[in-house]
Design goal:
This protein folds into 2 domains: about 220 residues, Spore Coat Polysaccharide Biosynthesis Protein SpsA, Chain A (Alpha-Beta Complex), CATH 3.90.550; about 200 residues, Spore Coat Polysaccharide Biosynthesis Protein SpsA, Chain A (Alpha-Beta Complex). About 40% of the residues lie in helices and about 20% in strands. The C terminus is likely disordered. The strands form 2 sheets. An 8-stranded mixed sheet has the order 3-2-1-4-7-6-8-5. The chain has a 7-stranded mixed sheet with strand order 11-10-9-12-14-13-15, with helices on both faces. The protein contains 18 helices and 15 strands. By secondary structure, it is an alpha/beta fold. The longest helix has 25 residues. Helix 10 runs antiparallel to helix 11, helix 12 packs across helix 13 and helix 13 packs across helix 16. Helix 3 links the parallel strand 2 and strand 3.
Length: about 450
């Protein structure tokens, strides 16, 4: 049987790549991924397109979007997945196997809520137990249903909230209780952590009770959406003044100081172009260019003006101290912070989007490098991740992992990338679609 996974989204540029990337193996196996956008003002659709079989816009509203996706689906089974949720690895085999074994025509998964709060496992356990007891599934649990059954009951009701509850009621009347799979879908705890677990619990139960009493879903939707806005994300780019003989010294041994400095300048410019694209896409909110050794070099002022970034000076006795100073300065302003260097040609907007998404549910995120370091680090709160870590060694990332584990800090790792440090790396980069070469008018000291 073929499954169509339908993902409703609106202004999810920060999360859509992380949501869709794990589904690519299912696409390769013949299943279908459909993203239905509800009028995003960011780059949700553009980022989703290469990772989906179909992407299109529909009238705003989760129910309307999911119905629109179902109308275009070709699968025998429809699986509705929120953009901030991740399926377990065995999701589709477990779903198809258990529906065939039990004869159930619809169901949902158990849920785990990702986040730091110690209340979240309890909240998830309560959601799962309530669902098993009542036969009512929530959208966070990944509702799945035979397409024929879904069509026979008219799909999701046209209402702005509690559409999952009403759909469950209709499915129960038509086909009996849901199949409740123990496989766990992981959903973001960003709302719970921003608004506080207890406040969110009280608010959600109040909304459910009011709906049971017959309250207008439109009024309840306004109450539901009155949450704290998402945390801003500051992207910080570490760069050095591109003076010949002082940058890319390993590369310079093979190609000469002047050419190595020109290559370095182009790498900085490419990184800033990516940063500006991420800002335009809605993936990050602010860009800071952190200069070394000072901010008054012509290259830095030119980059500041060309890419509309805030220019800051690196401070600290070593790289770890400089990184900590920069990251904590953004955290002190109430922002999440992502720090990158300028040497990684594969670091793109999608990679930054995955980092931004990770910080909603983890205190830290890292992008490991092939040489044992990392190309990206992000923090959602101040932690001691860098003191005592040796830099530019094959053990940097491994020792950072050990330090975080010793402090019981949760972190997420992105796919491993590589830096341009040697002539072999440069040759590798020149085979990419956007090859790195010296800019004709690059700034070289």
């Amino acid at each position: 049987m073929r499954v169509s996974i339908i993902v409703p989204a609106r202004n999810e540029a920060r999360r859509i790549v992380a949501a869709l990337a794990p589904l690519q193996s299912l696409r390769a196996a013949g299943h279908q991924v459909i993203v239905v956008d509800g009028g995003s003002t960011d780059a949700t659709l553009a980022l989703a397109t290469p990772l989906s079989d179909r992407t299109f816009a529909a009238p705003m509203g989760r129910a309307a979007q999911m119905n629109a996706g179902a109308a275009t689906a070709s699968g025998d089974v429809l699986l509705f997945l929120h953009a901030d949720s991740h399926l377990p690895d065995d999701a589709v085999p477990a779903m198809l196997g258990e529906t065939a074994r039990t004869g159930r025509r619809w169901g949902r998964f158990d849920v785990t809520i990702a986040g730091d709060s110690s209340m979240l496992p309890t909240v998830a356990a309560m959601m799962n137990a309530r669902s098993r007891l009542t036969g009512i599934a929530t959208g966070d649990q990944g509702i799945f249903v035979e397409r024929a059954l879904f069509e026979s009951i008219g799909g999701y009701p046209d209402q702005p909230l509690m559409e999952d509850v009403e759909l469950s009621r209709r499915l129960k009347r038509a086909a009996g209780a849901p199949l409740c799979l123990a496989s766990r879908i992981v959903t973001s705890g960003r709302r719970w952590e921003r608004d506080g677990p207890w406040r969110t619990i009280v608010n959600m139960w109040g909304i459910r009770f009011a709906y049971w009493r017959g309250a207008d879903p439109a009024r309840l939707a306004a109450r539901y959406r009155s949450a704290t806005p998402p945390t801003a994300v500051t992207l910080q780019v570490f760069a050095r003044n591109p003076v010949a003989g002082q940058v890319k010294t390993r590369l310079a041994a093979a190609i000469g100081n002047d050419e190595a400095a020109a290559i370095y300048a182009r790498l900085v410019e490419r990184t800033l172009e990516t940063a500006a694209s991420a800002r335009a896409a809605g993936v990050v909110d602010r860009i800071e260019l952190w200069a070394s050794p000072n901010t008054d070099a012509p290259a830095f002022t030119e980059w500041r003006d060309n890419y509309r970034v805030e220019l800051r000076r690196q401070c600290g006795v070593d790289l770890g101290a400089r990184m900590r100073h920069a990251l904590h300065s953004a955290l002190a302003s109430g922002s999440h912070a992502i720090l990158i260097g300028t040497d990684c040609p594969l670091l793109d907007v999608s990679y930054l989007a995955c980092a931004s998404a990770a910080l909603d549910d983890h205190p830290a995120v890292f992008g490991p490098a092939e040489d044992g370091g990392y190309v990206l680090v992000g923090l959602a709160r101040a932690i001691d991740a860098f003191s005592g870590i040796p830099w530019s060694t094959a053990d940097t990332m491994a020792l950072t992992r050990a330090k975080l584990a010793a402090q019981r800090v949760r972190w997420q790792e992105l796919p491993t990338l590589w830096d341009v440090d040697s002539a072999a790396d440069l040759e590798r980069s020149q085979k990419l679609p956007t090859a790195i070469a010296a800019s004709e008018n690059g700034t070289v000291g």
